[in-house]
UniProtKB/TrEMBL annotation:
It comes from the Bacteria. GO terms for cellular component: plasma membrane. Belongs to the cation transport ATPase (P-type) (TC 3.A.3) family. Type IIA subfamily. Pfam families: Cation_ATPase, Cation_ATPase_C, Cation_ATPase_N, E1-E2_ATPase, Hydrolase_3. It is found in: Cell membrane. This is Ca2+-transporting ATPase. The chain crosses the membrane at residues 71-89, 95-111, 259-278, 284-310, 673-694, 700-721, 741-763, 775-795, 816-837, 843-861. Keywords: ATP-binding, Cell membrane, Membrane, Nucleotide-binding, Translocase, Transmembrane, Transmembrane helix. Residues 18-91 form the Cation-transporting P-type ATPase N-terminal domain. GO terms for molecular function: ATP binding; ATP hydrolysis activity.
Length: 895
């Protein structure tokens, strides 16, 4: 029995063994698998046996839990208490109505939350990671959740290890295990069994753990444990997953608590005053409870979640996949978008536009072949498939394709000059080298950024460098990416295969100028950013002049004050010097991913709210530290995606700007909802609380208040979430994430309109009683209801008149208002409802008067907007620059 093997069976069953002490072949036998992987049928059986490869806390709420959640709401409990009180005081009728309303409310809440949960679930499915496995001997991408023990996974740099695995092949494999072991730095992995002994997790060098990331090299590995049986799963049982709360939700929570205290005091006062006035206490108690319910916005935080989840669903339709819900809200606050160039601002469709050849370079061994074209064809990782489809990095493809079109195809040349070794491209060295066998010896071909290659040329060529640099700069200034080529011949394969030893003493062959056209939609998006008070910044590894030329074409740079900074220039600046210019820099060229972090912190220190894109493994820290980390969906590595709050499914800059627009819309609608709800509450409190002071009876019954609170407020309120973006939402500065809910006159609006609603209600009551109208209470009730409906229509825009918006631009709202009117007329005119709701049918004249009085609120808001427009004022959101939120408020989006 191999060392460490505690239990192994000939056919696969659950096996527990110390895989790190066991030779690979025995691991395979114990897992009943082979290096060619499992077949689909076995994998299916094992999936049924082991369950999905996911952590238990990722499971969704059940329908039962959702229903319970509705009923556990404080407001519902208060309502149930009210029903209990009604029964006690012999008002069984009220109790039924209250229960019916509770039921209806629970149904509406359930449907909304269920839809939101489904939307989130769909998002999670979209964001679900995939793993490359061998199934039936063929490489295949499957959902990580479908991995089973015995699967053979293929791993490469940028992958997150999808399950606990035992490596069977590893090439220069390095893994970052800090997420699991807490120890930073990369661990080099091996395949050999470890000598017997007891090893902590970090020392089990031939094992890889779920959730850790491959930073270098590639590997093949057997899955040994999945789901909760992985090391991560063991810890996950100890971790309570905290629900994500957005900054706005936090503020609403605090507001809710303060309001609760205030409202309880008011309700108690109301009860006390009424009692002293000799009102029947049963009635007072019911109305006091109703008053408290009317005024409390308990449902607000939940409604924000619903809005955000539905918003996230909509964002996905615009190709922006939300990974962290708070991002939906905070997108509206972005002041800087720092973006990569290739593929995001440009099309990532490189083509060679021009070649510059050093005349008369003859490389021995190439006979009379053109040296530069041979280098183009041989020094490449691009391949051409049987149907002429090219695979590989776009720069590589452009160069290889150009050579192939000139009859220098890679396969034919590689047969003659087989590749012996390569030094792959890395973005710090900015070079790549291949070594080939020729009859004269080993041919070394290097290509890379001109500046990097020039440093490696033989001493004899240094004199022509000034001329070469001038030529390259001239090309770069037109927006070309310039790649220079050098070569040398060695008698034999060198023992030391490092860049320092190989990439020296090269003979310059020439250079190729490539063009990657800017995206047309990016130009428009840049312009839109600028009117929206957002500054787009390009961060690229490319040449300063290339970057500058593209930035100018896109409009990122439009004045001499806007700066271009290179990586080396950035390194030379100390913190105060960088802080002084950071807000003026529009392009960072030749920067390393590590410098992105410095850019983010400098901007954040200047109170900017930063969105940052990234695709590589080393972009992950920047993505985590940005206020909104954005990963590329097509070209991004999994590590980058896991670190990001948002994934761009189409890698397109314009999509970021669309997402910001959505973010602003969603935030605006939440604020509209708050304005609507709170203005209504202030109106109800004013009417109920003040009437007795004017010597009037209590204007409404408890049932009426509940009706208004749940139906009149609820239906149109929810419909506000469907309001399209304000016309000028991208023509005003970003939303300050630290701004209170009541900023920009929102507080005054709530107070003013609330008092107006209250005054109209009391006015109607006074007038109707004075006229001796027996239906005074139903009239008052109708005025209160309809004035809020009018408000819901007028509040749809902060600036535009409803007449220019058109009723049909939010059909959900129109439907909600019509439905509410219909329901209200039902309880007014259906005799059975009259008894239930203690209402009386109004005459046409009474109804007409009620509608006319109620419409005052609608006109008041429309006139207020007219004055705004006349003054040419857009309700300002913030004074730029937007201030950063305090520590507590940012917690949600720092990720
Ligand atoms: P962007 O931000 O525009 O996407 P990047 O930051 O990804 O650019 P890199 O791919 O790191 O840029 O390239 C940096 C420089 O390295 C390029 O300007 C080019 O000169 C050189 N380079 C890029 N690809 C290769 C390659 N395949 N072989 C050799 N040199 C390359």
């Amino acid at each position: 029995m191999p060392p460490g093997l505690r239990l192994a069976k000939s056919s696969y069953q659950r096996v527990f063994m110390d895989y790190y002490l066991t030779p690979v072949a025995d691991v395979a036998a114990a897992l009943a698998t082979t290096p060619a992987g499992l077949d689909a049928a076995t994998a299916g059986q094992r999936l049924a046996e082991h369950g999905p490869n996911q952590l238990a806390n990722a499971q969704q709420k059940t329908i039962g839990q959702l229903v319970l959640h509705q009923l556990a709401d404080v407001m519902i409990l208060v309502l149930l208490a009210a029903a209990g009180v009604s029964v006690l005081i012999g008002e069984a009728k009220s109790a039924y109505v209250i229960l019916a309303i509770v039921g209806l409310n629970a149904v509406i809440g359930f449907v909304q939350e269920y839809r939101a949960d489904k939307a989130l679930e769909a998002l999670q499915k979209m964001a679900a990671s995939h793993a490359q496995v061998l199934r039936d001997g063929q490489p295949r991408a499957i959902l990580t959740a479908e991995l089973v023990p015995g699967d053979v996974v293929l791993l490469e740099a940028g992958n997150v290890i999808p399950a606990d695995v035992r490596f069977l092949e590893a090439f220069a494999l390095k893994v970052d295990e800090s997420s699991l072991t807490g120890e930073s730095g990369n661990v080099e992995k091996t395949v050999a069994a470890l000598p017997p002994g007891d090893y902590p997790l970090g020392d089990r060098l031939n094992l890889g753990y779920k959730g850790t990331s491959v930073t270098n090299g590639r590997a093949t590995a057997y899955v040994v444990a999945t789901g909760m049986r992985t090391e991560l799963g063991q810890i996950a049982t100890l971790i309570q997953t905290a629900e994500v709360v957005t900054p706005l939700q936090k503020r609403l929570g605090t507001l809710g608590k303060r309001l609760s205290v205030g409202v309880l005091v008011i309700a108690a006062l109301f009860f006390g005053v009424g009692w002293l006035r000799g009102e029947p206490w049963e009635n007072l108690l019911l109305v006091s409870i109703s008053l408290a319910i009317a005024a409390l916005p308990e449902a607000l935080p939940a409604l924000v979640t619903v809005s955000l989840a539905l918003g996230a669903g909509r964002l996905m339709k615009s190709h922006a996949l939300i990974r962290k819900l708070p991002a939906v809200e905070t997108l509206g606050s972005v002041t800087y978008i720092c973006t990569d160039k290739t593929g995001t601002l440009t099309l990532n469709q490189m083509t060679v536009q021009d070649l510059y050849e050093v005349p008369a370079v003859v490389l021995a061994g190439l006979a009379d072949r053109n040296a530069l074209l041979t280098a183009l064809a041989l020094n490449t990782d691009a391949t051409c498939g049987p149907e002429n489809q090219w695979l590989g990095d776009s720069t590589e493809v452009a160069l290889a394709r150009y050579a192939a079109e000139k009859d220098y195809a890679r396969p034919a040349l590689e047969t003659q000059f087989p590749r012996l070794a390569e030094l792959p491209f890395d973005s710090e060295r900015r070079c790549m080298t291949t070594l080939h066998q020729t009859q004269q010896g080993v041919l070394v071909l290097t290509k890379g950024a001109a500046g990097a290659l020039y440093q490696q040329l033989t001493a004899g060529q240094q004199s022509s460098l000034a001329d070469l640099t001038r030529r390259v700069d001239a090309q770069a200034a037109q927006g070309y990416r310039v790649l220079a080529y050098g070569a040398k011949m060695l008698p034999e394969m060198p023992p030391d295969l490092t860049p320092a030893a190989i990439e020296t003493d090269l003979t310059f062959l020439g250079f190729a100028s490539l063009m990657d056209p800017p995206r047309e939609e990016a130009r428009q998006a840049v312009a839109e950013c600028k009117t929206a008070g957002i500054i787009p910044v390009m961060i690229t590894g490319d040449h300063k002049l290339t970057a500058q030329a593209i930035a100018e074409k896109l409009g990122i740079i439009s004045s001499p004050e806007e700066l271009v900074l290179t990586g080396p220039e950035l390194t030379a600046l100390d913190e105060p010097a960088f802080a002084a210019v950071v807000e003026k820099v529009r392009v960072y060229a030749r920067v390393d991913p590590a410098q992105k972090l410095r850019i983010i912190s400098a901007l954040q220190a200047r109170h900017q709210f930063v969105a940052m894109t990234g695709d590589g493994v080393n972009d992950a820290p920047a993505l985590k530290n940005a206020d909104i980390g954005i990963a590329m969906g097509i070209n991004g590595t999994e590590v980058a995606k896991e670190a990001a709050a948002l994934i761009l499914l189409d890698d397109n800059f314009a999509t970021i700007v669309k997402a910001v627009k959505h973010g602003r819309r969603i935030y605006d609608n939440i604020i509209k909802f708050i304005r609507y709800l709170l203005a209504g509450s202030v109106g109800e409190i004013t009417a109920l609380f003040c009437a007795p002071f004017f010597g009037l009876p209590i204007p409404l019954l408890a049932i009426h208040i509940l009706w208004i609170n749940l139906i009149t407020d609820g239906l149109p309120g929810l419909a506000l979430a469907y309001e399209p973006a304000e016309k000028r939402s991208m023509q005003r500065p970003p939303i300050d994430p630290r701004q209170t809910i009541f900023a920009d006159g929102v507080g005054w609006f709530i107070l003013g309109i609330g008092l107006l609603i209250g005054a109209l209600t009391i006015g109607t009551q006074t007038w109707a009683i004075g006229q001796g109208l027996p239906h005074w209470q139903t009239m008052t009730f109708t005025v209160l209801c309809f004035s809020q409906l009018g408000l819901s229509l007028a509040i749809r825009s902060r600036r535009e008149s409803i007449f220019s918006l058109g009723l049909l631009s939010n059909k959900t709202m129109l439907g909600a208002v019509l439905l509410t009117v219909g329901l209200h007329l039902t309880i007014l005119y259906v005799p059975f409802c009259n008894t239930l709701f203690s209402t009386q049918p109004l005459t046409v004249a009474e109804l007409g008067i009620a509608v006319a009085i109620a419409s005052v609120v609608f006109w008041a808001v429309e006139i207020q907007k007219l004055i705004f427009r006349r003054r040419g004022a857009t309700p300002a959101r913030v004074a730029a620059p937007a201030a950063r939120p305090s520590g507590a408020a940012v917690a949600g989006h720092a990720g």
